[in-house]
Amino acid sequence: MTQTERFHILDKEVLPGETKTVNLKIAQLHTMTELKIPIIVSHSDVKGPVVLLSAGLHGDEFNGIETVRQIIRKKINRPKKGTIICIPVINVFGFVNQSREFPDGRDLNRVFPGSREGSLASQFAYNLMEHIIPLVDYIIDFHAGGSSRFNAPQLRIEENQPELENLANAFQTPFLLYSKNIEGSFRESCDKLGKKYLLFEGGKSLDINKKIVQEAIDGTLRFLNHLDMLRDEFEVPKVDNQMIYIQDSTWIRADLSGLFQSISPTGTFVEEGQTIAWITDPYGSVEVPVLAPNSGYIINENQGPIAFQGDAIFHISTALIAKELN
């Protein structure tokens, strides 16, 4: 079915078959320079859903930014039907400063849905929720681990959400982690509006990992194909292994401070009691093993060379769900 409707966003029109960049003004710098976020909109001439691909909510999480950049560069964002909106960098402030936070020190992903008259971060969250999110049906938001903590490629959704489970099964990453929405998060606010939101996690901050980026791109291709939005010229990537569904998980913390040497990379299955890392002193007199508290998959690994007592050093699954989703 051919559509003739124009797509309206931020007082701009995008014609059927057109790709256009529009700008969302978010603030003015102390230099009086306006700070704007580029938003790339591709509108098909065939009626269909609206998908948002977003990254850089935390400005130091470069894997997601690179993922959306490549999607645009390879023209994957030009849909067979419907509309795809790409925001490669949401938190431009953080991206410029290579920082997680906004200039006001706030974590943007804890102030949603925001306020018209709140803090700088809150005002921006408000504008995103007011002007962009009402237009979309589906959202894939790309994230990475922080503070040298490397996430295995994974999707996160709440339990008992059949449609989200089907979408996650279409995307297919090595792991699907059931986790509750965090108060003030982008995910929670979108969920309250009935938007179907997948959160992708992979890699660590201040880093671009080619395997993680490719995993995210492949999943997006499968997701768009599931919605019949992927153009025929693109091949749908095959999945080598069935996704592992993690119902519950826990953090392992360091019992003492010292040099940290992990021997269990993300994605590894370990047995209860297995040595998964070592913590040592620099003088050769202390060498303490870190033992797995239970059998499970390592889904996050601290790749920093030093651990302090109480630091989170691994994220490990504690309960799996043995099923295949339709």
UniProtKB/TrEMBL annotation:
<dbReference type="GO" id="GO:0016788">
    <property type="term" value="F:hydrolase activity, acting on ester bonds"/>
</dbReference>
<keyword id="KW-0378">Hydrolase</keyword>
<keyword id="KW-0479">Metal-binding</keyword>
<dbReference type="InterPro" id="IPR053138">
    <property type="entry name" value="N-alpha-Ac-DABA_deacetylase"/>
</dbReference>
<dbReference type="InterPro" id="IPR043795">
    <property type="entry name" value="N-alpha-Ac-DABA-like"/>
</dbReference>
<dbReference type="Pfam" id="PF24827">
    <property type="entry name" value="AstE_AspA_cat"/>
</dbReference>
<dbReference type="GO" id="GO:0046872">
    <property type="term" value="F:metal ion binding"/>
</dbReference>
<dbReference type="InterPro" id="IPR055438">
    <property type="entry name" value="AstE_AspA_cat"/>
</dbReference>
<dbReference type="GO" id="GO:0016811">
    <property type="term" value="F:hydrolase activity, acting on carbon-nitrogen (but not peptide) bonds, in linear amides"/>
</dbReference>
<feature type="domain" description="Succinylglutamate desuccinylase/Aspartoacylase catalytic">
    <location>
        <begin position="48"/>
        <end position="227"/>
    </location>
</feature>
<keyword id="KW-0862">Zinc</keyword>
<protein>
    <submittedName>
        <fullName>Succinylglutamate desuccinylase/aspartoacylase family protein</fullName>
    </submittedName>
</protein>
